[in-house]
């Protein structure tokens, strides 16, 4: 419909979504094309309220399939450049890490998912396909290459300070080095980038993107609806949909007549963030735990929790995932609520690996649930959407569906 709104500048981009993808998109638009007018629309008043604030922040250079290898290489370089330019080591705890695969009770040679996959689930380099490991409740370490090295005779001294040596034995696979894996805290990183671009002239709007306004094939503005019901028309002629797991439903609401919905949905993952008294080491730990039912361990199934030690000494624990059938995606991020059964499982797994003493002496900073944006084939959806799918409008773009690799691939995307 035609609107009497202010005309956009020659190039005015509206980014819908204030997570890592939206923040990085705004950052590089302002850095590379400073003459472009940039608007950013976020429905939640809380910054980085979704996975961009509650995910693990693990970075890997070479754990990706052919479809995203070049993107991962670019993003790895971008992460390093951002950390160097903006003191990322201090601001968002950027640091290289050694990535290890451990197996409880010395079962790694047989039971670790990197050695226990059906042939049909592998690509030609021996990795589990990108779309398989998350939904099969495995570890992202199944995306890595074969172990770089194995150590059977000792546990690294710095690692022994904060994990239970009796629990893990000495079977340790080295999956990544300081040259190929790293760690960030995604919450301060995303907030830093959002604050930076806001100070650099990006226009922020809080509300739900509810309608596209234009004439013929040209976009003129987008209407956002605020919490109080008031509306605002944001002038723009290009739109980027980067709303994480809500990107699919956002597209359907903006273009209800489209015959081709965006195949982006949410996949739930719980996490616990600890601050231990013990001094941690720069390690990312991927485990394969086979427990039997008991009074203290009621779960009795194989699982693959992940433990990330951050530069600020916090420990991030995750790896208990749930499908959309088990934990459906809510209407918006402010309605996300944790599930106690999954948190109890993570609590038990944390005690198992870290040991009771480390666990008792640690402060639980946060118990969280976030949804990773996933696609049917496990690959992100990026680029221009054909106008025939968007009510005839040209200039609609999408960047979503990165699964658990949103932080890793965010800057390059």
Overall 3D form:
elongated
Average pLDDT, to the nearest integer? Answer: 86
How many H/I helical runs?
11
Spatial separation of the terminal alpha carbons: 32 Å
Residue share in β-strands: 25-35%
* Low-pLDDT regions: 106-131, 295-300
Helix share, percent: 10-25%
Number of strands: 21
Radius of gyration: 22 Å
Q: What does the main sheet amount to?
A: 9 strands, mixed
Secondary-structure-derived class:
alpha+beta
How is the topology of this model organized?
Blueprint: E1 12-16, H1 20-32, E2 37-42, H2 51-54, E3 58-60, H3 69-85, H4 88-91, E4 95-96, E5 98-103, H5 108-111, E6 149-151, H6 165-168, E7 172-176, E8 181-183, H7 186-199, E9 203-206, E10 208-215, E11 218-225, E12 231-235, E13 238-241, H8 247-254, E14 265-275, E15 283-290, E16 302-303, E17 306-309, E18 315-322, H9 340-354, H10 356-360, E19 363-374, E20 381-384, E21 396-400, H11 406-409
Parallel strand pairs: 1-2, 1-13, 2-9, 5-15, 13-21
Antiparallel strand pairs: 3-8, 4-8, 5-7, 6-7, 10-11, 11-12, 14-18, 14-19, 15-16, 15-17, 17-18, 20-21
Helix pairs in contact: 1-7
